[in-house]
Amino acid sequence: MLCTSAFAAALAFHNAASRYFFALGRQRVLPTAFSRIHRRSGAPVGGTVAQTVVNAVVFFFAKNLRGHSPWRVLIAPASPLSVRWCSCGSRYSQLDLLTAAGSAVNWALLLPLPALFVVGVVMALRIRRRDPVRYESLGTEDVEG
Q1: Prediction pTM value
Q2: 145 with 34: CB under 8 angstroms?
Q3: CA angle at residue 89 from 51 to 93, to 5 degrees?
Q4: What is the pLDDT of residues 102-136, one digit of tens each?
């Protein structure tokens, strides 16, 4: 049951991330290739491919260090986030009660959040400056239809 639950959670996360790529492609925040859908099933093919590639890259670098230490390949590139990481950590110190997982898993879940927030703010400010009409229309499009 635990394995089935873990698989279901991973699949749900993959599907949700694919839908985010799809929606951002439809809104032209990401390239429109992300908004492609399968002609028969309507599945977000562009978003699914993007999410699969992101997963493949992360797993490749996690397993294939090419003779370098984990510090140089994985940890040092993420170190600028350490201040945000600690800040989020203090807020989410009870996350283990929700996930019933160890602290390493909980930190892995929280680590991308501050970086993604900053990227989102920078992209929104850039769109607002370059294309105010498009900025005003963000989030108003019906991505289901």
Answers
A1: 0.51
A2: no
A3: 110
A4: 778 877 877 887 888 888 889 888 988 998 888 88
